Amino acid sequence: MSDAVLSARTALVTGASSGIGWETARLLAGHGATVLVHARTTAEAEAAVARLVDVGARRDQLVELAADFTKLSEVAVLAGTVVKHYPALDLLVNNAAVMAPERCTLTDDGNEVSLQVNFLAAHLLAKLLRAPLSAAGDARIVNVSSSLHRTASMNWSDPHRVKRYSRVAAYAQSQLALTMATTEMAPGGSGITAVSLNPGLCDTALLPLYGRVGAPAAEGAAAVVRLCLPETVVTNGAYFDGAVIAPTAAAVHEVRSVKRLAKLADQLVGQAV
Questions:
Q1: Per the residue annotation, which of 86, 165, 171, 210 is the catalytic one?
Q2: Which residue has the higher pLDDT, 273 or 267?
Q3: Pairing state of beta strands 10-13 and 34-39?
Q4: Residues 6+ apart with CB under 8 A from 66
Q5: Mean of the pLDDT values across residues 180-200?
Q6: At what angle do helices 19-30 and 217-226 cross, to 10 degrees?
Q7: Dist. CA 136–CA 86, nearest whole Å
Q8: Is 171 considered catalytic here?
Q9: How much is the CA Rg of the chain, to the nearest whole Å?
Q10: Going edge to edge, which strands form the sheet with 239-241?
Q11: pTM recorded for the entire structure
């Protein structure tokens, strides 16, 4: 595949070392985009890029970037690198995600690990990359969420769920937060449009959380990439289930809750900025 519809565009894909993220990077490169391939470590990023080249991507389209999202300082450094080298960023695909562990686990930043990796890192990236995203004109942020967000609730008094922990509830809360925050990632007048989606149940590292058989990761990636294409008309804050607009949890549309989440997220990432 090489239709070059994205040949003048630059995309950052987080969590691109495997699964939907890697397949998204492959498809975006096939459309001609320059793809910033993020992974947790330099070795993982280099391996991901090598595999992309093996399946036909041009090496000069690919840039490896490393940051461990369990360390917000590394998220900030990643954003700084992008700002320095890419004054215009057309696409930000917030795909990086981890399963919540069996036991409540806090990062060195003091945040529950799935909340930080799945939501706070995306929140921080969207904030720190606003200048290059705005400079691109008609930039898009695509947040890879989950249908599980509809089962979740925000635990405002204990967002890290230290007192009463459930790995499924923690993971679902992280996806709810990401979906709720989508509209705020693209404020009016910024020239950015942000959407979120459930890519479907795919055979990725997250599948054990769902306990079912999943579709190939490439199918989920195709749903992600569709939202990156200029031919796909999107409105800010829209939530998709695959290719169709779908209902969200009620909290996504509660302005007071969305503002409360934005304030909480700023507090939780404050030390890294």
A1: 171
A2: 267
A3: parallel
A4: 38, 39, 40, 41, 42, 44, 45, 78
A5: 93
A6: 50
A7: 10
A8: yes
A9: 17
A10: 62-66, 34-39, 10-13, 91-94, 139-144, 192-198, 239-241, 244-245
A11: 0.93
